[in-house]
């Protein structure tokens, strides 16, 4: 798996627990028989919270998004299925960091 430099920088800027999720997603991609997960329910074997979708349905050999953390993050990647040296190129890493909302103020009696 190869990374664009900006995607690698984004990965290194993520919190440790999110990087672990990205590494788990990476492991799923590099060990998959077909990293594009083509076909009906072909990504059903992915761990809970992960899904793979094409970025554009009109370009089945184009970029894909592997969503992790129940859609709060994704890896945008392309796959070149060469016989000798297949290649996965990660173009973008994104994670939506959010803070839990604060509880509403208590009404005074």
What keyword list fits this structure?
109 residues; 5 strands; alpha+beta
Task: Describe what you observe in this structure.
The protein is α+β, with helices and mostly antiparallel strands. It is 23% helix and 26% strand. It has helices at residues 5-13, 16-31; strands spanning 2-3, 51-54, 64-68, 73-80, 87-95. It has a 5-stranded mixed sheet. Strand 3 and strand 4 form a beta hairpin. The longest helix has 16 residues, at 16-31. The radius of gyration is 17 Å and the shape is globular. The termini are far apart.
Q: Give helix % range.
A: 10-25%
Strand share of the residues? Answer: 25-35%
Oligomer: single chain
Number of helices: 2
- Give the number of DSSP strands: 5
Q: Structural class of the helix and strand makeup?
A: alpha+beta
Write the layout of secondary structure elements.
Blueprint: E1 2-3, H1 5-13, H2 16-31, E2 51-54, E3 64-68, E4 73-80, E5 87-95
Parallel strand pairs: 1-5
Antiparallel strand pairs: 2-3, 3-4, 4-5
